[in-house]
Amino acid sequence: MSVDDILGGGFMDEEDDDEDMGSEGEASDDEGGEDDDDNQSFASVDDLDDGEAHLVELSKLAEKDPEFYKYLQENDRELLDFNLETAGAQDDDSNDEQEGAEEDETMEEEDVTPILTTAVLKKWQKALLEQRSLRALRKLLLAFRSAAHMNEDGQVLAWTIDSSAVYNKLVRTTLKYTPVILEHHVPYKTLADGKFKGPSQSPKQKTLQKIVLSYFHNVIHILSQLTDNDTMELAVTESAKIIPYIVTSRKAVKLYLKKCLELWSSAEDNIRIAAFLAIRRLASSSDESIMDMVLKGTYLSLVRACKSTSAHNLPSINLMKNSASEIFCLDHATAYQHAFGYVRQLAIHLRNSMKVKTKEAYKQVYNWQYVHCVDFWSIVLGRACDTEAQKERGGEESDLKPLIYPLVQVSLGAIKLISNSRSYPFHLHIIRSLIHVAKHTQTYIPIPPYILPIITSTLAPSTRPKASTLRPLDFEVQIRAPQQYLKTRVYAEGLVEESSFLLAEWLATRSVQASIAFPEITVPLVVMLRKAVKTAKASSNSLGKDVGAVKGLVERIEDSARWVEQKRSTVTFAPGKLSEVDDWQVALKVEDSPMGKYVKVQRKTREKRRKLVEKARHGEDEILED
């Protein structure tokens, strides 16, 4: 089996869900899907009593919905300048609608589709703004359907659109006005926990349900046609406001989620963020089955997107991992069920690779998808089990905390699978993820046994490193060193530098640096590093620059050990007083330690270098500036 087959196997398969939901989705289609004849579905809106419609004062509109009011100021200023004294008179409006109906009948008799003009759009906009007219909304949505299917064969459309300006204005007007009108006539409920509940059942709600679902399907359809980023972002943002009205239709939810996941994993950054907000809106539904669909779809989309990694798509993958982790932290109990299964799947890949021990079996673990999955769960656990977040919850532990141990064991097992120098970049990726967990959850993870072999073997190689003109290896986008880098000076320097920094990062975490036993913890480290430095100096194959870097790290470790010894010299409690020991460790400011200051400087230096490399990659002249 290939990596894709394994990662998509078993409980990750989406086909089961489709089969289970088939009958339910068909029932939803019959109840509220997009009918063959939209005109018939929309016609029932005319039977609603529009006597409740009233003139909305602009001052109240600005207060209740400032975003919508701002949109009107920017795009339809003339609608805000109407005469308030005559705005309430509906006779002309009724006459206009009657005349329009007669014109429609005449057009149907002549079998000629009317052409949509700006004047007609203005008339609908004014009726929507002044009276929250459902008849005007019906006409607007019929025109929107014509815009969505205008270039398709076999479609019976209510309007012909022959102008790009009218098309853009129609699309933007429909997207902005529809949520406002629906909120006015059939408001939904927002619960105390931030979730929402659909509007209560009423004759008006049942009548509007059909046209809302039809409109929503048209929005999904038009998202595949739009090419303008601003309009696409607007379509995703405004369609998310309609979600409370369509959650009862499983087919609409699945189609919309699929489209949003597609945009979230492949579009421009602004559209990615808008799609993520729409996905999070779906996850805020009180329907638990929708939350399950969102969690599963989000993770599988992430796995597919990170199949290969380069300097160009790494920022996008990091954006996906960070945003997806937020969704998994919305409901820890529900997320645990999914996270447990996916972490277990990583363990199964590792077990199979350890049993078979072939090149193909190793590829099940040594690939980008495995690396990013481990890193993703590290981000999720770091966010969910963060000590500060736990304090905000009143000290209540997260339901995801029991997954820290299995994730750490799987990660350490993956490091031990292959130990040659070519696989060191993979090891550093896994170690970086574990340090993230240790930093945020204050969990002690024994990292040095997996970093020290990299440092010691690189400082004292069996053969003298070859000089090379290769550029330094970017460890962020490599999990396996290219063949030409092996046994070269540039590769050895990069390994020692990266390993030393990660070791310093681990030592600076609160679970290590704030430990009252820090001086004793670092004794084996200092002994091994000093021995490696001494061996390297005695060897003619050593690298002077790397020896100096490791020697500087040893000095910082010893300084931090003396700093902790000085702090604990004034304690009056015995080691058995664990509660007092914990209080002492919590009160210790690790950022003021020599190791904390050293890591802070190293981070700034690395960030500056990263920015310079990024500028060079984009060909900017600022690379030469200091």
UniProtKB/TrEMBL annotation:
One cellular component term from this protein's GO annotations in UniProt: Noc2p-Noc3p complex
Region feature (Disordered): 1-49, 86-111
InterPro entries given in the database record: Noc2 (IPR005343)
Q: Where is the composition biased (Acidic residues)?
A: 12-39, 90-111
Chief location of this protein? nucleus
**The keyword Nucleus is annotated on this UniProt entry:** yes
Which of UniProt's keywords are assigned here? Answer: Nucleus
Q: Which domain of life is it from?
A: Eukaryota
Q: Which family does it belong to?
A: Belongs to the NOC2 family.
Protein name listed in UniProt: Noc2-domain-containing protein
